[in-house]
Design brief:
With 148 residues, this protein is an all-alpha fold. The chain is built from seven helices and no strands. It starts with a helix and ends in a 7-residue tail after the last helix.
Length: 148
Amino acid sequence: MFPFFIFTVTKNNIEMKRKIALLIPVFLISFFMLQSQVNNPWVVPEKFVEMDNPVKADKNSVSEGKKLYKQHCKICHGKDGQGDGYMAKNLEVDPSDLTFEDIDIQKDGELFYKIKTGRDEMHSYKVVLEEKDVWNLVNYIRTFYSEE
């Protein structure tokens, strides 16, 4: 009876070591991906930071932006801009939550640049959307954030 017990414990220990050996790379990859985002901020050229939005954020612009958002952005950023779209789970990096203050404190030109150029899994809309459409999107995205 005693040798069987040793074999069982040893077998369980081997299985536990295998599981740990498999989890370590997953943890490290996740850690380094998060670090790359933290250590690799999205630098926006100064000319875009200082760029003013030429499209007034009126009812028409926000409505147009909403249509474009549903067509191009909702799948990743989610219905309400919280980064929980149905494709978000398939991405290596979580989409931005557009309801957070860090989005609100960015200037319109910064958001315009990011939508227009994209980065990593965030698609570039340079050839997909006209400039006015991107500005309409910026105006609509501004509706997500509310100070509470």
